[in-house]
Amino acid sequence: MSYVRCQRCGRPTCPECQRQAAVGIHCVDCVAEAARALPTTRTALGGVRHEGRPVVTLTLIGLCVVSFVLQLVVPDWTTRWLFQPVVAFYEPWRFLTAAFLHSPGQYLHIVFNMVALWFVGPTLENTLGRARYITLYLMSAVGGSVGSVLLATATDGWATSSVGASGAVFGLFGAILVVSKRLGGDVRGILVLIGINLALGFVMSNIAWQAHVGGLVTGGLLAAAYAYAPPARRRLVAILAPVALGALLLGATLLTYASIGAFAV
Which residue range or ranges hold the Peptidase S54 rhomboid domain (predicted)? Predict the structure, then answer.
């Protein structure tokens, strides 16, 4: 039996449920109630500021790591979800699922992408808020695959397979550039980072630079909508901007497929 009582409600509280407060001991229920009563703190761009760990970024990293392990132990996991323009016409979910795969024989592939995600993700998650951040990430992932479709006929062809979170990460690069510019920050370092990584895609083999470009453009456009939306219209823009951009990506993709006669196959 506990003889320690909560200073707020007066109920007995066990040692496991006691929370030290500025004055006395509070129970977990009173602590939770007090937390709900606190005013919501927002960032300069209207995102809800959350204390503690960047849970969305950590979740994305965790999903990529778990998927990578499955690639190593499940024989057809990679082929089931990778992106290939000619196959994605019939299985459109591959536009997104490929972003959670990485080259099984190249461990540096996932390491570099996850380090880059951790480098820029938490800042955007905190500045934009979790909902807009995850929307931007997923849209950039799709945008990377769309970039591969739009540029496929002029480059590697429709049968080329691709995997990796690079398109989504480049979307975050584009977003952090736009957001930093909007908030008056120095963007020279970000421009150098983007330039170097884009250049690597052109000088090194087996790198899908098309996905990098697609993700970069998609992330930059969506971030611009978020960053420059009038404060009173931010909630509306957070809904309409992804819908409009998604429609644009879909339209461009369907027109490209139509140009090669995919609908007639």
Answer: 91-226
